[in-house]
proline dehydrogenase
Amino acid sequence: MLGPVILAASRSDRMRRLISAAPVTRQVVDRFIPGETVDEVLPIIQELTGDGLELTMDVVGEDITTPEQATAARDAYLELIDRLKPLELGTRAEMSVKLSMFGQALPGGHELALANVRPVVEAAAGIGTTVTLDAEDHTTLDSMFAIHEELRKDVPGTGCVIQAYLFRTEEDARRLAASGSRVRLVKGAYKEPAEVAYQQKHEIDKAYVRILRTLMEGEGYPMIGSHDPRLISIAQELAHRAGRKLDEYEFQMLYGIRGDEHLRLAAEGHRMRVYTAYGTDWYGYFMRRLAEKPANLSFFLRSMISHD
């Protein structure tokens, strides 16, 4: 399987330098990451919301090694919120954050990440929108869930992400579904050991459906993070069986993948949110998109061949 190989490459400084230097890389990256600055992505935000879509914005960058970098990540999100305010989009443009960017892996990282992310969550609430805490590798999740619970005391709309390939997630979903929280369910994009995660696609898909049923039948707000047509169809059926209205759940897909499907779901009246990343530190994000789906890797390789 190529996925683990690509994920390993995402952590290699040598591969980072090699791929970043390839002339074709920038062309392909632009498919998934529409800009490096707020000024570059604001027109994209306006275009997508004008088409009836919603967004969750991610300022990319995970290799935080100093408290100063974590503070800079906080400030980047605060700048985004400041620029979103005059657009008055409310929850049509929310934010996704990785706590690793806010210093979670540094000494005293739990407290540091909470201190850095809290003003972002509060500022987002101040312009009528929300923040979702992205899930990262399994060793970070207890901290993430604790921070999520703490933030929801003051900002109940704060969301979190759970990953279907982890054995623990079915229990996490039962707890979260009963709490009224906003929960995004994804398959999972980190290389995890067999001791904690399913390794085969069919096992992950079956777990995804079981977890999604729990969320749909619960009291929370499910966010279906998938591009898989079969899972999307199953989600619609589960929502129908649970008696959910179209505004009581949403679909989420990545910018640059299945754009026609984004528009189709929105046209049918579904809430369709596009996960839109931007920033200069795009390498890790880009490599995980390649690892998640063979078609993404094929697209990259074809682009390299046609460029040559």
Confidence is low (pLDDT under 50) at residues 303-308. Strands lie at 54-59, 93-97, 131-133, 159-163, 182-186, 221-225, 250-254, 271-278. The chain has two domains: 1-33+282-307, 39-278.
